[in-house]
Amino acid sequence: MVPADKIIKAAIEENVDVIGLSGLITPSLDEMVHVAKEMERAGLNIPLLIGGATTSKVHTAVKIEEHYKKGQTVHVLDASRSVTVVESLLGQRKDNFVRELKADYEKIRSHHAKHRAAKELLDLNTARKNKLTLAFNDSTITAPQFLGTKTLKQIDLSEIANFIDWTPFFQTWELHGKFPAILEDEIVGVEASKLYKDAQEMLQMIISEKWLEARACFGLFPANSVGDDIEIYNPQNHAEVLGVQRTLRQQTKKAEGQPNLALADFIAPKSSGVTDYIGAFVVSAGFGIDTLIEAYEAQHDDYNSILLKALADRLAEALAEYLHMEIRCKYWGYAQTEVLSNEELIAENYRGIRPAPGYPACPDHQEKIGLFNLLNATQNIEVSLTENLAMFPTAAVSGWYFAHPDAKYFGLGKITEEQVIDICNRKNLDPKENQRWYSSMLH
Ligand code: B12
């Protein structure tokens, strides 16, 4: 995201009518709060529009709107509604619209406060006592065929393309429905089919003309859990800790018999004396995209620009899927006989998970720092982390591999301030300065 001071400077100098902020991953949510505060401080009164995958009306009402009193903040679910919203904010109906919005956001805030008070969270100690206890033995742990890190460059895109999950591709275009049924859909079928045809044509160009390059970097290491942390060891010398993944534990009060999960539960505790393993990966299919996007944008060709970005994103996800299969069947080798169709892969009908920092089981984006260091990803494949921990090139995915047969995806849910302080202490970070990374998870 463009820094707040630049946004405000441009708004004043260029006399803009409206500012719009878009947030894809949670670190940008806090930056939005900062922009709102800075707009207030600069005495601006123009409307502030909020949108993007991680934003919501509740977040806008509870966290942003109150900081910008001089102007109106509005959450817009769909960018195509911006024109109508801006017309309402700047046109004849302005006063009524703003009054209604303010009342609506006030209602959301009070409802949120009541709901928050009613929802009970466990203290950290009690949640930890209710951890998941798994069996760690020869039938649940397989020593990887390969240990250490590996870098793959110029990966064959024609192979990766077979692993594309097309359903999210259509979502990018606001066409909702499952692929391939969406192509026959009564309402969006015609549009979806045209789009799919264009996508196939561009995909062939990407492959044959080598428009994009795909790279991957992964590692498999011995590991053990120590409380909610996962210690990752040097394969040549288990006494050397290469990195520690700090996981967060669910604190919601569970039904009888249901555990409070943390990813660390899927790795054998150090105290068991059993050696377990973990994997890590960073992949990107976005190398080479910038010059092509610039060329499309110079021609004001938004359609092909969005199409190319969406295909690069699909290839990055497909590469993550392909690499995970390679890990299971070859490099780790705990599922050497696995044969699954693309549909079965998309349905995750396999053993093991690959949670990505930022996804619901591990919403802590900061964990990407340790992951990148462990794999030396920036040096090895030139994927970097921005100040707000977004990956660059954008068409990139990173995460962990867990192989225990009972490892599963889950949502962390809300956590208490106690756990935020705890995780900051475990990372040797000042809790006050780092609260912003956890604010969207806080109860
Ligand atoms: C496609 C996608 C990707 C693509 C990249 C997308 C991109 N080019 O930026 C790929 C596969 C590369 C990817 C990677 C990652 N992703 Co992702 N991704 C998605 C996904 C599936 C769809 C997002 C999308 O493009 N939607 C289509 C567009 C059109 O919708 P949209 O962005 O919401 O925008 C609409 C509205 O919000 C609105 N709008 C948006 N902006 C604005 C601005 C204004 C002013 C207005 C008025 C309106 C408006 O208008 C748009 C049209 O309706 C979402 C899940 C989801 N269903 O939303 C996860 C999601 C955004 N990803 C997520 C995560 C965590 C990641 C990774 C960090 C995972 C990882 N560790 O690898 C990486 C980060 C990549 C990076 N570069 O840093 C999380 C973020 C959650 C969080 N807590 O931060 C999500 C929400 C998934 C989830 N459920 O957890 N991702």
Description:
The structure is a single chain. With 443 residues, the protein is of the alpha+beta class. It has 2 domains: 4-118, 3-Layer(aba) Sandwich (Rossmann fold), CATH 3.40.50; 126-437, Cobalamin-dependent Methionine Synthase, domain 1. The chain is built from 16 helices and 11 strands. Strands 4, 5, 6, 7, 8 and 11 form a 6-stranded antiparallel sheet that branches. A 3-stranded parallel sheet has the order 1-2-3, covered by helices on one side. The longest helix has 30 residues, at 302-331. The radius of gyration is 23 Å and the shape is globular. 36% of the residues are buried. The model has no long low-confidence stretch (mean pLDDT 95). The structure holds cobalamin (B12).
Largest sheet: 6 strands, antiparallel
CATH fold group of the largest domain: Cobalamin-dependent Methionine Synthase, domain 1
Shape: globular
CATH architecture of the largest domain: Roll
Strand content: 15-25%
H/E order of the elements? HEHEHEHHHEHHHEEEEHHHHHEEEHH
At the fourth CATH level, what is the homologous superfamily of the largest domain?
Vitamin B12-dependent methionine synthase, activation domain
Total E-strand runs: 11
| Number of continuous helical runs | 16
| Low-confidence sequence ranges | none
Mean pLDDT across the residues is 95
Q: What separation lies between the terminal Cα atoms?
A: 26 Å
List all distinct small molecules, including ions and cofactors, that are bound in this structure: cobalamin
Number of domains: 2
The whole-angstrom Rg is 23 Å
- Indicate the CATH class of the largest domain: Alpha Beta
Q: What structural category do the secondary elements indicate?
A: alpha+beta
**Helix share of residues?**
25-40%
